[in-house]
């Protein structure tokens, strides 16, 4: 994975057909997705449950590009090795998920993955100021994590701008997660984000048997972000 700050669209399979993940991953990549975003939820850190490392390992062969695993679980550390073995390229943990985020980020890199840190809407940019040499990606949650299809929280755009300044020339991606669509993508792109996660705005209107709308949706978000 070489570093690249151009806009990348990362569809979240949280909005895919759960009975058909392999084919859905292949369809979104064929339709222009740059990364595949995989939302892991435990019903404890967030009020929803999705799936774990076995599902990630099962879908890995169906993804040619970057598998971006977003862990909304607590604790994180006991499961890092399993997600790395499942083939995650990026493993993102929440700064709010435990008392030792520094140790968690070390463990992610130690397991051979790129390390991401996610911030809930109420968590300030300054909370990771002393971790910047430990991370490859900062994920700004623009909804409260747990569900797809929620409304974008506009107050987070200023946080993106602050992070962009803090990061400077470092090779760190800024990822936006939640409520991204063609109306919100330009706001976060202008503030300095380069990885745009989108679930409902990518999958709406399409299916594995009719994937063309996925491509139209991805192109609309990318064009809006680049405008
Ligand atoms: C929310 C997840 C998101 C979510 C985004 O907890 O982390 O990745 O799927 O979905 P949309 O794009 O529908 O807001
Ligand atoms: Zn996510």
UniProtKB/TrEMBL annotation:
CDD domains: RPE (cd00429). Transmembrane segments: none annotated. Its EC number is 5.1.3.1. InterPro entries: Aldolase_TIM, Ribul_P_3_epim, Ribul_P_3_epim-like, RibuloseP-bd_barrel. The active site is at residues 39, 177. Pfam families: Ribul_P_3_epim. One of its GO terms (cellular component) is cytoplasm. It is an enzyme of class 5 (isomerase). Catalyzes the reversible epimerization of D-ribulose 5-phosphate to D-xylulose 5-phosphate. This is Ribulose-phosphate 3-epimerase. It comes from Yoonia litorea. The gene is rpe.
